[in-house]
Give the backbone structure.
Amino acid sequence: MTTRPDSQTQLDALRGEIERRNPAQPEFHQAVHEVLDTLAPVLAARPEYAEPGLVERLCEPERQVIFRVPWQDDKGRVHVNRGFRVEFNSALGPYKGGLRFHPSVNLGIVKFLGFEQIFKNALTGLGIGGGKGGSDFDPHGRSDAEVMRFCQSFMTELYRHIGEHTDVPAGDIGVGGREIGYLFGQYRRITNRWEAGVLTGKGPGWGGSAIRPEATGYGSVLFAEAMLRERGEDLEGQTAVVSGSGNVAIYTIEKLLALGANPLTCSDSGGYVVDDKGIDLDLLKQVKEVERGRISDYAERRGSSARYVSGGRVWEVPADVALPSATQNELDENDAATLVRNGVKAVSEGANMPTVPEAVHLFQRAGVAFGPGKAANAGGVAVSALEMAQNHARTAWSPARVEEELARIMGDIHTTCHETAERYGAPGDYVTGANIAGFERVADSMLAQGVI
Ligand code: GLU
């Protein structure tokens, strides 16, 4: 498909304008560029999308909230953090996306995540818009009581911006079942409403969906499997390198084991573990989920098959499949070159934007199947949307039913990305396929709903 030069010129001008109007937000620029770089063919083919203002509106959040979060630690000292909620796009449904509690959180990070979320959520085929939020609060080393007081203070402002039909937060890095519990409790107390659908990732006894904790990791592995199937292979007997040791990494490892693959690694900010016998899931869950410890503890307790590499890069471990499941920009061009040299066949992004753009291009040039996070990690938010559906119906589905739905949704996302890439002359390019397919769905709704 040829690209009309005016589409490319329009996109280049917009790119410059976004950099100028959003200074010092490199991650947001990166996320926007990555999408704009793939849209020229669709703007050229479908003139209605080139309508002035459409892509500009898509790149500007509908609403951005920044607020003070004061709280007291166990010694009575006052701390002041900053809270964010970026409500990016609601053309397809209520804003939907997680909350991240991590010291690196700032407006640019929340905007990159919110922007990605629009396309990811559109790809699920469900009725959810895009949003994201969080705080620069660091939960590490904090007692349960401190985390509770922080969450209560955070919700004391956030509650006025969210609601089951408005904006539905969930977890992300640093926000799991414990934090969602404290946040939900405070929301319920302030509003005097049992509004289960205002948050997802709730506990199983009070409105949470089965398989929600597992969904992102399971989905990312299902996406890797679908990409391999396209090439006449599957995951059985394949070695895998996984980064991270949070919720996404743990359930990625669980699903790899279930499908007969051999996950060799996990990591945290201190280093990585390589386990020649394959990661022992029970021990990893004990160390990370029960004790909230470090993965160096895993290596100490595992015995001779495991080694802890302090400060090392997990990508130096040779494997057939790579599943970056920690955080943004964790896999650079050198890492990609190492993985390619070691014969990697597929990369599936469990984290949001973990692979730098040069590394993505390197994988694609080398013929490695590359599944971008928007598609590969959409299983988490998809099951969040299923949790909302269960809450609205005041019912709870069986784990088997949710898992079946998750598998169907991931299969559909894979097919959509694959077919869209072919339709736009980029066969096998899941980045182009995901961006264009997500864009088409959101853009059609925005056009139908007028200039708002
Ligand atoms: N934080 C997850 C994501 O990046 C899940 C969001 C949700 O469930 O709303 O997609």
Residues 96-98, 170, 172, 200, 352, 380-381, 384 surround glutamic acid (CB under 6 Å). The longest strand covers residues 78-89. Residues 215 and 234 are 20 Å apart (CA to CA). DSSP finds 16 helices and 13 strands in the chain.
